[in-house]
From TrEMBL:
Its cofactor is a divalent metal cation. This is NAD kinase. It catalyses: NAD(+) + ATP = ADP + NADP(+) + H(+). One of its GO terms (biological process) is NAD+ metabolic process. Its main location: cytoplasm. Keywords: ATP-binding, Cytoplasm, Kinase, NAD, NADP, Nucleotide-binding, Transferase. InterPro entries: ATP-NAD_kinase_N, ATP-NAD_kinase_PpnK-typ_C, NAD/diacylglycerol_kinase_sf, NADK. It comes from Pseudoxanthomonas broegbernensis. The keyword Protein biosynthesis does not apply. It is an enzyme of class 2 (transferase).
Length: 256
């Protein structure tokens, strides 16, 4: 990265984010995404995930500033010393999950997830799901509201709210967490190696339809979902040293 990096600023549609965008562009200029040294995302965690999905393939590090409701993946927003903050920022490499879903109509839908992939019941009827790991059935029938697979970066979000474990960054693990499991009632999920291939089979898709959501991308009426960690896709987030992502995830485990 150059001593004075070329920055591409992106902002959510929220008025305060748009105001910050205009202010920062006036101060630092605006660089084209393809030519940028770093992307600066202004918004909340939802906008950060949107940025990663849209521009992650460019391979540019992303420095986020919180101008939204939730900002776990963001730094504090203030315009002062932005260049110095970017220069001293600590990188955190994230590897997304790859999801491939087969629907009742026979179509296949693929997507990436940096936080989690969630299977959810579509109606008042509970979902019936079979779970296989690396080609071996591990749970013949899970009756539940849903089930998810979460990355370490996503383990503090929806996964933690569903009583799943918080995973340390760099632990090369993923969390398999049920949502309101009815049977087996005592099953709390599992912590798996990151390279595990997880296969969900929907056992009664017509009576008990199920949807799958990869971050914010939803596919309805699925009959099978296969999830594995991406072997070749990574993104780099930049964090201020005093509160980097690893520290944030660790701190979440001591919140009482």
């Amino acid at each position: 990265m150059n001593s004075r990096p070329c920055i591409a600023f992106l902002a959510s549609s929220a008025p305060n984010a748009q105001e910050a965008l205009a202010d920062l562009v006036a101060c630092h200029g605006q660089c084209a995404l393809e030519e940028a040294d770093v992307i600066c995302a202004l918004g909340g965690d939802g906008f950060m995930l949107q940025t990663l999905h849209r521009y992650g393939a460019l391979g540019k590090p992303v420095y986020g500033m919180k101008l939204g409701t939730v900002g776990f993946l963001m730094n504090h927003h203030h315009r002062e010393d932005l260049l110095e903050r970017i220069a001293t920022a600590e990188p955190a490499k994230l590897r997304p999950l790859e999801m491939l879903a087969l629907t009742e109509s026979g179509s296949s839908v693929g997507s990436l997830a940096y936080n989690e992939v969630s299977l959810l019941r579509q109606t008042r009827q509970a979902a019936h799901v079979r779970i296989g790991l690396n080609g071996q059935t591990r749970l013949d029938e899970l009756i539940c509201d849903g089930v998810m697979v979460a990355t370490p970066a996503g383990s503090t979000a929806y996964n933690f709210s569903a009583h799943g474990p918080i995973l340390p960054l760099g632990s090369h693990t993923i969390a398999l967490t049920p949502i309101a499991a009815f049977r087996p009632r005592r099953w709390r999920g599992a912590i798996l190696k990151a390279d595990t291939e997880i296969r969900f089979e929907v056992l009664d898709p017509y009576k008990r339809p199920v949807s799958v959501t990869a971050d914010s991308h939803e596919t309805r009426d699925v009959v099978e979902v296969v999830i594995r960690e991406s072997a070749d896709r990574t993104v780099t987030l930049l964090f201020d040293p005093e509160h980097n992502l690893e520290e944030r995830i660790l701190s979440e485990q001591f919140v009482v």
